[in-house]
Each structure stands twice: as structure tokens, then as C-alpha cells.
Amino acid sequence: MISVRRRTVLVMLLLAAAVGAAGGWAVSQAQSDKAPTATAPSFVGSEGTRVVPAALPLSSGSFAQVVEAVGPAVVNINTFTRGGRTPVEEFFGDEIFRRFFGDQPEREQQQRSLGSGVIVDPSGVTLTNAHVVERATDIEVVTSDGKKHKAKVVGVDRRTDLAVLRLQGGGPYRAAALGDSDRMRVGDWVLAIGSPFGLQQTVTAGIISAKSRSLTGGPFDDFLQTDAAINPGNSGGPLVNMSGEVVGINSAILSRSGGNVGIGFAIPVNMAKRIYTELVAKGKITRGWLGVSIQPLTPELAKSFGLKEAKGVLISDVVAESPAEKAGVQAGDIITEFDGKKLDGPQDLQRAVAGAAPGKAMPLTLWRDKATKTVEIRIGETPDETVAAKPGGNRGKTLLGLDVRPITPDIARQLNLRNTEGVVVARVDDDSAAAEAGLQRGDVIREVNRQRVRSLQEFERITRDVKEGDRITVLLQRGAQALYVAFTVARG
Asked: 459 and 375 share a domain?
């Protein structure tokens, strides 16, 4: 049984004119910080015509006209996967499954999942989440009038979790107008429309709770946060402003139970517009690439490299034959500006590079050896798969609070190392400066204070004269990731 709680919401709406275009993008020029006017918003109608509803009276507390304008463009998405292993087989693995259950006859299997989407062009082009349609062999879209349509995937961008579908036959379709997510302010009213738990055409209301939220620290994390209820099944549905425009694509929730707790996240529609355009045109996304591993510049690291402020991006490794290596960029460089724009941290660089056109030459300002240096780098194209640069019975005990061992061929194989250069951390004292800085068992030390470590003997030579109060900068290899760590040696 579903319990429904009703409550009256007093709505204060400042409406400005917005124009919906049937054949392409409809980007709002309305600004929420303008003084309210008597002009009612315009929406895209069933035939691509403009519909100008009556002004929403302040006393009505109703979002009905916004829903009536956008709702017909919101769809329910059913996906099917034929063949493959069952969840039980996935869990146990083939060998164990056969051991306990014997060989099973070949069969055709169907798995079904539910999600949402929004039609953004009368031809049937639809935006949704990549995770909604991933691995699907058949996609069925149910429009607001209950009609079922087959759909094909135009393109998928897993890095932003966006996908573009095209409905097959039956058009023209009701399409939603796309707004300007940059103009949304914290506190603005929004609606989330979708099919939570398979309940088609469900509408929830809330506000923009925050902007530019990062969930994983990835380069494309730039979410709108909302308290409009978003639940499983809402994924891919639109987040809508009070002008009846899509300002986000609902993507994720923060919840321990899996249900709504008032913290949901939507991909800004301005990001979705670029992805949509490129996927429709080329079927894939082309992004810029430097070929470096980067990490945040902490105050401790900034001080160790001679910088006054912890602003910039620290290069921890450079991929061989990459644009960065060809431009002369080195591990230990700090990028302070990209194409003339100052960088505060890694996400600034990642977003700027991802949006740069491959093949274009751009200036890069570096901090190296306590001096500023400018190089020109020709932007590459991001590889389809992640490219990571890999590093190339004695014991060593130092004031650093570490036990390190030489890297034998067997250890190199276990750690998937390219060679035996460096030393591997066997133990870290719990109360040591190294532990506080984050060093872990299994880390490979490649440099100490910018001096390369090829063997246990070199590590011992470099650290032999370390004393209390000395500042140490260590370059580590942790799995496929290179990482700088800086700390001050304390009394052992």
C-alpha cells in the first residue's frame, strides 16, 4: 500500500519569458534575478507551437501548468538484456556454479530495468542516463499517452552518465525546451518528473539546494543538488524550472537505504547540450587530453615546492609519448595556468582540458624549480580507455617510520610493476609522520626529495642524513596511480 501525504506549498514564482523551439535547442534567456514582470512564460506545445499559460497566481500554490507543458515530453524507459549469466552465476562464477548445480542448458534470458528520459526534439531524440541503457539489447520507451515505442541508442557517454536515444516511428513527438542551468540559483524552485519505482509520470517539487557538487571528485562532477524527491526509476528524467524548461537530467541520490532522503543530484543541462550535440553528430564524444596524472596541491606540498599559495595542479606522472611529454612537462611540475586562466585545483584543469579541441596548441604555465615557465602544448584526444603511466632479505628502517624492501622480480609481478626500480613499503609505523601523510604498505617509492630511487641502497643513501624537522617530499606508485606526498619528519 502506498501512503500519500498531502501538504500545501506556498509558491513564490518570478516568471520571465522563455521561448521553446520545436526543431532545435530552446535555451532560456530569462534571468531569475530580474524583477518580476507580468509576462507569462511560453512553452513548447504538441505541434511545436507556443503555449502561453495564464500567469500562475501567487495564492494558487500550484505547479500544474509547468507539469502540463513538460509532462508530455517525459518518458518511461524499459530495457531488456537477452542471454548472459544470471545474477547467481555472476556471484558464484562459472566453475563454482557448475560444481554445485551441474551444466545447464543454453537458454535465452531477459532482464528488465526501469528508468526515465525526456524527449528534446520532435524527431524523437531523447536524453537519459547512460546507466539506464547500459548493456541493453532492446529498449522500449513508453510516452505519456501510454504508447510504446522501440528506441535505438544514438550514443553513450559514461563519463558524464548521459545517453541519447532516438524513438522509432510515430513522430512528431512532444518535446521539452532546454533551459540554462548556469542561471539557476540556490533556492530556485524545481520539479523532478519521472517514473520512480515504475510509477509513470510522477512529479515532485523542491528547490536547488546547491550547485557544482562533486560526488566522486571526477572531472565531470558538476551536479545540481536538489531536495525534490528523486528515487530509483527517476534516473534520466528531467529537472525542470518554473519556466517549464529542463535544467538538469536526474542522475543520482545520496541515501543509505536507497530511497529519497532529500539529497538528489542532476547533471546540468548545459553539459548535456554539448554531449547531445556531439553524440547526435558523431556518435561519440571527443575530449582533450594532456596525458598526465595529477593531484591536489595541499599547503604542505605547496610549501615543499616553494610556492606561497596552494593554488595549481601538481603533476605526479607523465604518460610516455603523450602531448605533455612532447611539450616537456615533467613529474613534479605544478600547472598554475591553462590557456591563460588560473587554476585553483585539479577539477579546473580537467574541465578545461576536456573542453579543449584536440589538435589545438595552448599555453601552459608551470612552476618548476621555484620559477615560472611557460610551454606550448598541443592538445591530444582522450583515449577510449584509461591510459595510466606505470613505474618503471635486506630491510631499511629510517627516521621516516618506514620499513622498505627491495623490489624483487616476484614482487614486481605481484604489484604489476614494469621493472624492479624503487623500494616497496613493507610497514608504516602507526604514529609516524609517514603514516599521517598517508603512506601505505605496498606503496612503491620512486623519488625522495626529487632524487630518483632505483634501489634500496639509493633510498638509504638519500635518507641517511634525514633529521627531525626536515621536510620530505616522496613520489609514490600506488597501483596504477602516481602520487606525491609531503610531510615533516617528527622525532622517532
From this structure: no
